[in-house]
Design brief:
By secondary structure, the chain is α/β, with parallel strands linked by helices. Helix content is 42%, strand content 14%. It has 8 helices and 7 strands, in the order βαβαβαβαβαβαβαα. Helix 1 (16-27) packs across helix 6 (197-210) and helix 7 (219-230) crosses helix 8. The radius of gyration is 17 Å and the shape is globular.
Length: 256
């Protein structure tokens, strides 16, 4: 679909990859961009940059009432980017309880699903519309050191496929963006080369334009998928290194 004159909503849009998406939409000629943030004050710099085209919206995707309020307020959205995510840095067996895993699943799976459900009727009003779910290379290969995060991204990827099938009749494309190593606060534990958030956003907009089903947005995501196809058991063993207290390294060692 054409980005020009579209109206986008980006969750977790006040920093990192989300912030880059906001700027990319503006540069591509979007008519308006809603920035979803837990505290709208944290998106004020983007509102100022947008010169009337950026609107900050209070939105914690783990809170159903805020999703409902956002859908009631943002009735003109034609592109939804589910970018908000959580990484609790807990392993599944080593965590003191299941609270971290539940929270990651709530934010990385149930939250984006709830956003898709809330905004599907709004997207259906447009001749062309799109959803882009920002996922992870940890959603195509299991990373034991990433505890609940990796399983939640697997769930998010499966959800994306199911939602794509359900929304196809209304003309809404649904894209899975597989992200590897990016220079953001969430990936501060990752060593080695990291792509810029702007690179991921540009790949995302390109995928939206094409209506692509799934796109690897950066070198690390491509490398992980290639190694998964080449030797899945060797990659599984490599992922175990994160359980030994080693910092995850970009390339063959594992996704961010």
């Amino acid at each position: 679909m054409d980005i020009k004159d579209s109206v986008a909503l980006v969750t977790g849009g006040n920093r990192g990859i989300g912030e880059a998406f906001v700027r990319a939409f503006l540069a591509a000629g979007a008519a308006k961009v809603y920035v979803g943030a837990r505290d709208p004050k944290n998106a004020q710099h983007l509102v100022d940059e947008g010169q009337g085209k950026v609107v900050a919206v209070e939105l914690d995707i783990s809170r159903p009432e805020q999703i409902e309020a956002a859908a009631a307020r943002c009735q003109d959205v034609s592109i939804l980017v589910n970018n908000a995510g959580q990484f609790a840095m807990q392993t599944l067996m080593g965590a003191p309880d299941l609270s971290a895993a539940r929270s990651e699943m709530e934010t990385n799976y149930f939250g984006p699903l709830a956003m898709c459900r809330a905004f599907a009727p709004i997207l259906a009003r447009h001749k062309e519309s799109a959803i882009a779910n920002v996922l992870s290379a940890g959603g195509i290969v299991a990373v034991p050191g990433m505890g609940g995060y990796s399983p939640s991204k697997f769930a998010g990827r499966a959800m994306t496929t199911c939602v794509r099938a359900e929304l196809a009749p209304q003309g809404t494309s649904v894209t899975a963006l597989i992200v590897g190593s990016v220079d953001t606060r969430m990936a501060s534990h990752v060593e080695g080369f990291k792509e810029t958030p702007a690179t991921i956003a540009e790949a995302g907009l390109k995928a939206i334009r094409k209506g692509a089903d799934e796109v690897d947005t950066d070198f690390m995501a491509i490398d992980v998928r290639a190694n998964l196809a080449r030797d899945p058991k060797a990659l599984e063993i490599a992922m175990r290194r994160s359980l030994l207290g080693e910092r995850v390294t970009t390339g063959r060692q594992g996704p961010a």
